[in-house]
């Protein structure tokens, strides 16, 4: 089975927010790593910020993972926000209408201010 080519770092800039720094590829193979990072980031938070500045590649399986993550966050009463997407992936978010559920910001300070 192929391995996930993703590295995730979880930070908590304050008690209300968990940030997941994403580096590498977001594909279906990264599900266990992403869900573990979400569990760590979501402990007691009201919002999760996804930092895509280190994103190298995302396919349809990765989009599906983000939808799964969104459903989990909504069940916990949390919001998902994102920043660091390049123009290509911003367009993918628009085409899939994922940008209607995960608001995209220009920077981490802007996303944290929105929480």
Major sheet size, sense and barrel closure: 5 strands, mixed
What is the CATH C-level name?
Alpha Beta
The strand count comes to 5
Helix content: 25-40%
Parts with pLDDT < 50 across at least 5 consecutive residues:
none
Q: Estimate the strand proportion.
A: 25-35%
What shape does the CA trace take? globular
Total separate domains: 1
What is the CATH topology classification name?
Answer: Transcription Regulator spoIIAA
Total of DSSP H or I helical runs spanning 4+ residues:
4
Class inferred from helices and paired strands:
alpha/beta
Looking at the overall shape, the CATH architecture is 2-Layer Sandwich
Q: Cα-atom Rg, whole angstroms?
A: 13 Å
Report mean pLDDT, rounded to a whole number.
Answer: 94
Side by side, the strands of the main sheet go: 1-2-3-4-5
Task: Tell me the name of the CATH homologous superfamily.
Answer: STAS domain
Report the order of strands and helices: EEHEHEHEH
Euclidean distance between termini CA atoms: 39 Å
Could you characterize the architecture of this molecule?
The chain has 115 residues and is α/β, with parallel strands linked by helices. The chain has one domain: STAS domain (Transcription Regulator spoIIAA, 2-Layer Sandwich). It is built from four helices and five strands; from the N terminus they run ββαβαβαβα. A five-stranded mixed beta sheet has the order 1-2-3-4-5. The radius of gyration is 13 Å and the shape is globular. The mean pLDDT is 94.
């Amino acid at each position: 089975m192929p391995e996930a080519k993703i590295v995730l770092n979880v930070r908590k800039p304050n008690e209300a927010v968990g940030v997941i720094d994403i580096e590498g590829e977001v594909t279906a193979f990264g599900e266990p790593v992403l869900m573990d990072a979400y569990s760590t980031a979501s402990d007691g938070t009201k919002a999760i910020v996804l930092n895509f500045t280190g994103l190298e590649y995302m396919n349809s399986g990765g989009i599906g993972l983000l939808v799964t993550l969104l459903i989990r966050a909504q069940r916990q009463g949390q919001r998902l926000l994102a920043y660091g997407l390049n123009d290509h992936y911003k367009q993918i978010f628009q085409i899939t209408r994922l940008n209607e559920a995960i608001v995209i910001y220009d920077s981490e300070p802007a996303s944290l201010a929105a929480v």
